[in-house]
Design brief:
Signal recognition particle alu RNA binding heterodimer, srp9/1; 25% helix; 2 domains
């Protein structure tokens, strides 16, 4: 049996970055742990200092299939390129005709730019668009394909 896992993203503004990634991945803000009505109640129960209550945000797959993602506040800014990144598969795969796939990619790119993302480049290995490399509002790179 494999291990349960989640992903944690270090960032400056956990709530804002979590909202961006909810849009990008079609995730939702994570419900508080079982037995607690709110995250604040959970934090109070575990004696997390109130000045740290905004230091994290959590999102989850609404279908409960994919891993959850945590966003944790850190003092230092992002300094170098990510060694690991998200690939957001919205186009339907390379087996889809470009005239079907590329509008799907462009629609998602437009949504993410409106939400604070940045297009870094459009990758066109043979002159045909393949995927878009973007950065989230804090500069973390990802691809939309």
């Amino acid at each position: 049996m494999s291990e349960q896992w989640s992903l944690t993203v270090d960032c400056a503004s956990p709530r804002e970055l979590a909202a961006f990634w909810c849009l990008a991945l079609r995730y939702v803000p994570a419900a508080p742990p079982e037995g607690f009505a709110t995250w604040e109640a959970w934090q109070a129960h575990f004696k997390v200092p109130e000045d740290e209550w905004d230091d994290g945000a959590f999102i989850e797959d609404p279908d409960g299939i994919r891993p959850g993602i945590s966003f944790l506040k850190v003092p230092e800014p992002k300094a170098v390129k990510n060694r690991m990144h998200f690939d957001i598969h919205v186009g339907g795969g390379r087996h889809e005709p470009l005239k079907v796939r590329w509008p799907r990619v462009q629609t998602m790119v437009d949504k993410l730019v409106a939400a604070g993302g940045t297009v870094l480049r459009v990758d066109e290995p043979d002159g045909t668009p393949d995927h878009v490399t973007m950065a989230d509002p804090e500069g973390n790179e990802f691809d939309v394909l």
